[in-house]
Structures are given as structure tokens and as C-alpha cells.
Amino acid sequence: MPKHKLLYDYLTERAEDISQTWFDTLHETDPDSVYASTDPAVLTNLKKQNLAFNYQLNRIFSEEKEVYTAALEKWAFKAARDKEHLKTPIHYIIREFIRVRDLYVGHVKQFTRLHSDTVTEEDAEDIFHTLIKSFDVVIHIFIEEMYKNTNIQLEAQKELITELSSPVIVLFDNVGLLPLIGDIDTARAKMILENTLHQCSEKRITQLYIDLSGVAMIDTMVAQQLFTLIESLGMLGVKATLSGIRPEIAQTAVQLGLSFSNLSIRSSLAEAIASDLTQKKG
After folding, report:
1. Is residue 275 predicted with pLDDT exceeding 80?
2. Which residue of 46, 83, 90, 162 lies most exposed, with the fewest beta carbons within 10 A?
3. What average pLDDT does the chain have?
4. What whole-number distance in Å separates Cα of residue 146 and Cα of residue 84?
5. More confident residue, 191 or 161
6. Is the pLDDT assigned to residue 259 strictly greater than 90?
């Protein structure tokens, strides 16, 4: 018989009671927390997850460390990726793990008192160490998974913002406008290049105005990406016209030795459109 098999049986018999006690004492008001949900389906799943955790946790007293650790990790990875938990602030999740841990500590203390004749001081120390360590493992996995998910969401939001900040707007017929606003670093310049080519192809653009009036400064790398964009557009049959180049950018371009001599340039977007319309009418 494993060293703590009696404790395993003791806790397994009380697993549902522990889970119900935890659920009955939930007190949450934050609507972003899964623990404040009033959705019956969400609450049912929450109860199932907690009870499943209890049964997996109890295995730390009946199985080898490699076996029960793998089982706990499997439960933690699955629960951490649950959409309701992903929407819940991590400090609420840690708080609930601590509440469950405290319930377990109370039951384990009761067990050691009931079996004080067979559970030595060394046994009790080993039991509590194993229990706390197991909670630490699960909490660590939750924090790590939440961190990963947060980074994924931030990257997705960053890409969306970048994409929305460089839209190709159809003005009329096959004529489009790419208004660039704000700071443009190398990463954003690369994204602009990819998105613009894709959007021009998708929207069948043959004439594109690239307006820089909202851009305060560009460096050599960004300028090179801009030249690459214009060349790539030309290969797609899209004529590009730059407009709204601010004095600061023009001065920087000269200092960096950048040449705009082969590009179609107008002082403003209004002038660019008016000039092209005049040429078409003529």
C-alpha cells in the first residue's frame, strides 16, 4: 500500500464535499470573472472543473510523483485554456486556488489528528510539503498559460491596429488612397508593404495615392521600404503618387542621400487628385 493511501481514500470520499463547499462560498462581483457568472452552463462546467481537479490532486497521495504530476499538468493546461478562465484576471484565479488549498489543508489537518497514532510528525511534514508543492505547480502553469495568451492577444491587436492604420481606401473606379499617419518604424513599414500590395490586388487598384502628410519622420530603412512598395506596386500595374511630404521628411531625405527623382510627387493630396483628373480630361 502506498505510504499515504489512507489519506487518498479519506480525501477522495470528501472530494465532492470540498468542491461544493468551495462553490457555495464563492463571492465575486467582477463581471469579467468566471466566478461571477450567472450562466448555468458556465457554472456547471466550473463545478466539473473543480471536482476534476480535486480527484487529480488526491492522486498525489496514492501514485508516484511522475504520474500524478503529469495528470495535474494535463488538467491545468486544459483548464487554463478554457475561454472563461482566459477572460478572468489571473489574481482571481490564484485567489480561488488558495481557497481550495486552504480547504485541503483543513481536511488534511483533521486526518492527521484522527490518525495521530500512525501519522508521524515526519509523515505530516511530507504530506503538507507535497500538497503545497502540487498547488504551486498548477498555479505556475496557469500563470504561464495566461501570460502566453496575453502576449498572443497583444500581438494580434498590434497587427490589427497596424493593418487598420494603413488601409487602402477606394476613391473612385480603380483609384485608391493610402493615408499614412503617425510614426512608422521598420516593422510597421514592412506590414504596410505587405498589406498595401494585398489590398491593391484585392480591390483592383491601378492608381494609388500615398499621402504622407500625417507622417512626421522617416529613416533610411523606412524610406527603403517605401521605395520597395512603389516598385512592387509598379510590377502589379499600379501607378503610385506620393503626396504631402512634410519639410522635415524632405530635409531628412536630402541629408540621407535619398532620391525621389523617379517618383511621382505632389505637394498635397488635393493637388495630386486634381492634377490626375485634369490629365485624364485633357
Report:
1. no
2. 83
3. 88
4. 12
5. 191
6. no
Residues 144 and 207 reside in one and the same domain: no
What pLDDT score does 190 carry?
84
| Residue 162: predicted pLDDT | 63
Neighbour-count burial for 12-33, b at 16+ CB within 10 Å, e otherwise: eebbeebbeebeeeeeeeeeeb
Q: What is the pLDDT of residues 76-102, one digit of tens each?
A: 999 988 989 988 999 999 999 999 999
Exposed e or buried b per residue across 100-118, where buried means at least 16 C-beta atoms within 10 angstroms of its C-beta: bbebbeebbeebbeeeeee
Range of the domain at 251: 169-281
Residue 113 sits in a domain of what CATH number? 1.10.490.10
Least Cα distance to 138 among 66, 78, 64, 82 occurs for 78
The total number of structural domains in the chain stands at 2
pTM higher than the cut 0.70: no
Q: What is the pLDDT of residues 215-239, one digit of tens each?
A: 877 777 787 888 889 889 999 999 9
CATH code, domain with 205 = 3.30.750.24
My answer on whether 194 and 136 are in the same domain is no
Burial per residue of 254-267, b for 16 or more beta-carbon CB atoms within 10 angstroms, e otherwise: eeeebebeeebebe
User: What is the number of residues in the chain?
Assistant: 282
Residue 100 to residue 50: CA distance in whole angstroms: 9
30 with 153, same domain: the answer is yes
